[in-house]
């Protein structure tokens, strides 16, 4: 047994490389809480999570005052026990986004530490199901981008070997249809076009739009309704042939269970940074497998590539690069497919000099 002897905290505020606008918001910042856990043998595990511009300081306060102190002296291998104890410790604020984001930073650090001690990459330790995962890109499909640029980006992605692209929707319905149709005409059949409403619609509008999108052969309709409207998703799923994708705004394994049991979604987009870490991510992925449903996680491609490779029912990794300024090498891509790293750990080559340089002033805390 090697007890946890030190927990280091900091936060980096990353600005998107491109303008990102969807139907409800503009993505202007990625607050990135980071945790480094050291055990008595001197092995260090690094974990992280994220917000999209708000709540980062609250996450850091929860890590500093509650979660971090609670793991000092614990056996770093007891990942499941630690996760459950932290969940109980924060029972007054769960299920909730800030708690899940904070727990994800600790849980991913513990998995990184365990992988490093055992000399194994995450994708092998967590399952070892696939050697590579197809990629689709979101970076050229934001809602503010005009139709010619959408087409150009989709054609470029296809030429680069990507299997699909995502288009944000939420303009007047005739504009959405025209934009999707233009991309479909340009790329032809066999290249997936996914759509994402970012929870913008009420159920009646979602049904109307789904029927308008159906002839365009889209791969899925993502977050058409507010995530807590499970009944609305049931109704929509019964009214359309389009696959309905949900998950990035769910923060509990139990919420995913209810969606699956009620046949309210046919694509699961569980996000490791929002579900509370790798420990619950794997539970959701295997639960979806039991329902014969694919996992196509939201964002965090640098970490999700290894988790997708660990399970048999992962179908896509979403290409949105965001960690380049914090890493020494990026995710490996071959012929439009993401390849998980075989290095021990999460598979992310952190540049700690850059991380220290870019850390938000006042965010550094060491607990021991």
Distance between the termini: 18 Å
The run of helices and strands is EEEHHHHEHEHEHEHEHEHHEHEEEHE
Low-confidence stretches: none
Shape: globular
CATH class of the largest domain: Alpha Beta
Structural class: alpha/beta
Strand content: 15-25%
| CATH superfamily placement of the largest domain | Enolase-like C-terminal domain
> What value does the Rg take, in angstroms?
20 Å
Keyphrases for this structure?
368 residues; alpha/beta; Enolase-like, domain 1; TIM Barrel; 2 domains; ten-stranded mixed β-sheet; four-stranded antiparallel β-sheet; 13 helices; 17% strand; magnesium ion binding
Give a concise summary.
The protein contains 13 helices and 14 strands.
Describe this structure in words.
This protein is an alpha/beta fold and 368 residues long. It folds into two domains: 4-119 and 351-367, 2-Layer Sandwich (Enolase-like, domain 1); 123-339, Alpha-Beta Barrel (TIM Barrel). It has helices at 56-71, 79-89, 97-118, 122-125, 147-159, 173-187, 203-213, 230-239, 253-261, 272-275, 278-290, 301-310, 352-358; strands at residues 4-14, 30-39, 44-48, 133-137, 164-168, 192-196, 221-222, 244-246, 267-268, 294-295, 317-319, 332-334, 337-339, 365-367. Strands 4, 5, 6, 7, 8, 9, 10, 11, 12 and 13 form a ten-stranded mixed β-sheet that branches. Helix 7 (203-213) links the parallel strand 6 and strand 7 (221-222). Helix 1 (56-71) packs across helix 3 (97-118), helix 5 packs parallel to helix 6 and helix 7 (203-213) runs parallel beside helix 8. The protein is globular and about 60 Å long. The two termini are 18 Å apart. The model has no long low-confidence stretch (mean pLDDT 96).
């Amino acid at each position: 047994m090697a007890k946890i002897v030190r927990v280091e905290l900091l936060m980096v505020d990353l600005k998107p490389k491109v303008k990102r606008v969807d139907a409800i918001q503009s993505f202007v910042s990625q607050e990135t809480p980071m945790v480094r856990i050291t055990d008595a043998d001197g092995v260090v595990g690094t974990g992280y999570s994220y917000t999209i511009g708000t709540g980062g300081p609250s996450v850091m306060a929860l890590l500093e005052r509650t979660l971090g102190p609670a793991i000092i002296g614990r056996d770093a291998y007891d990942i499941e026990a630690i996760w459950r104890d932290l969940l109980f410790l924060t029972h007054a604020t769960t299920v909730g986004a800030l708690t899940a984001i904070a727990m994800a930073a600790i849980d991913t650090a513990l998995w990184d530490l365990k992988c490093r001690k055992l000399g194994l990459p995450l994708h092998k330790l967590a399952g070892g199901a696939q050697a590579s995962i197809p990629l689709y890109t979101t970076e050229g499909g934001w809602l503010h981008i005009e139709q010619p640029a959408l087409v150009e980006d989709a054609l470029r992605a296809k030429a680069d070997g990507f299997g699909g692209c995502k288009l944000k929707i939420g303009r007047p319905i005739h504009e959405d249809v025209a934009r999707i149709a233009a991309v479909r005409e340009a790329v032809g059949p066999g290249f997936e076009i996914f759509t994402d409403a970012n929870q913008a619609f009420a159920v009646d509008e979602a049904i109307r739009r789904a029927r308008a999108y159906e002839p365009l052969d889209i791969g899925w309709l993502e977050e058409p309704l507010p995530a807590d409207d499970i009944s609305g998703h049931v109704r929509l799923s019964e009214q359309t042939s389009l696959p309905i994708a949900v998950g990035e705004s769910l923060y509990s394994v139990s919420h995913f269970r209810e969606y699956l049991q009620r046949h309210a979604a046919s694509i699961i987009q569980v996000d490791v940074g929002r579900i509370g870490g790798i420990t619950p991510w794997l539970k959701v992925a295997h639960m979806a497998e039991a329902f014969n449903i694919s996992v196509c996680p939201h964002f965090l491609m640098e970490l999700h590539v290894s988790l997708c490779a660990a399970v048999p029912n992962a179908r896509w990794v979403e290409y949105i690069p965001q960690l380049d300024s914090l890493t020494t090498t990026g995710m490996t891509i071959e012929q439009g497919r993401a390849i998980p790293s075989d290095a021990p750990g999460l598979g992310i080559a952190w540049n700690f000099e850059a991380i220290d340089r870019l850390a938000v002033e006042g965010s550094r805390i060491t607990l021991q």
